[in-house]
Amino acid sequence: MDSEQLPIPDKLYFKIGEVRDITGVEPHVLRYWESEIKVIRPQRASSKQRLYRRVDIENILLIKRLLHEDGFTIPGAKKYLSGLKKGKTKKQNKVIEDTPKPSTNIQSFCQQMKADLEEIRRMLET
User: Fold this and answer.
1) Region 44-66: what's the mean pLDDT?
2) Neighbours of 19 (CB within 10 A)
3) Which CATH class is domain 1-87?
4) Angle at Cα 67 formed by Cα 65 and Cα 72, nearest 5°?
């Protein structure tokens, strides 16, 4: 997917193709995210075509960042967004932001875990 994004034009509604062009997210992915993550709620035209609002596009860009840059899974992004929607305090959101991202290098993660466990064992022995 293209990491560059177009600026969001100043209009009320956007068709799914326009959202794809702005966000770089394909329509089938947009429809999947819409079914899984309830913060994306496009209106429907009389022709049943999806009409996205600016807030939908902003949420799509946030979801894209969470999934592609921050290493969240779909359930993790859902949980994060529901925390924002419920108006958690900055401190609570900071806890979410400080949660370690999934390690891309399993071996180094395991080595660090082993070192941490050995340190805990030494602390308990004294």
Assistant:
1) 92
2) 22
3) mainly alpha
4) 120
